[in-house]
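dumping this here so i dont lose it
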């Protein structure tokens, strides 16, 4: 594999929750940024469904002069209710898309 074919990753720190203080290599996308949300499935010791830890990407710091973002870190979000679904701009807050058929119309 050549350098251009290699998967690029960035060491990203985690804050809060069970991963607090750890730094993991996270793959970056075509823009050079890590994903906005990082989900870590933790298996249940009793064989039940796994617990999913949710971390959101936040700026690590800003430059003094121009205010540019100096890097990224992940911050723990214990109250995440997105459930791994994408949030589209045309989606209703309750989770149902506005493009779905409405029985009251006709």
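and the seq i came up w/
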């Amino acid at each position: 594999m050549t350098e251009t074919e290699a998967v690029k990753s960035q060491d990203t720190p985690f804050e809060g929750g069970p991963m607090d203080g750890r730094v993991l290599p996270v793959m970056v996308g075509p823009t050079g940024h890590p994903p906005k949300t990082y989900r870590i499935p933790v298996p249940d010791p009793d064989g039940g469904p796994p617990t999913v830890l949710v971390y959101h990407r936040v700026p690590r710091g800003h430059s003094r002069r121009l205010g540019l973002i100096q890097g990224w870190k992940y911050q723990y979000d214990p109250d995440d209710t997105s459930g791994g679904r994408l949030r589209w701009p045309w989606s209703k807050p309750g989770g149902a898309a506005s493009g779905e058929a409405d029985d009251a119309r006709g």
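Residues 40 and 53 are 5 Å apart (CA to CA).
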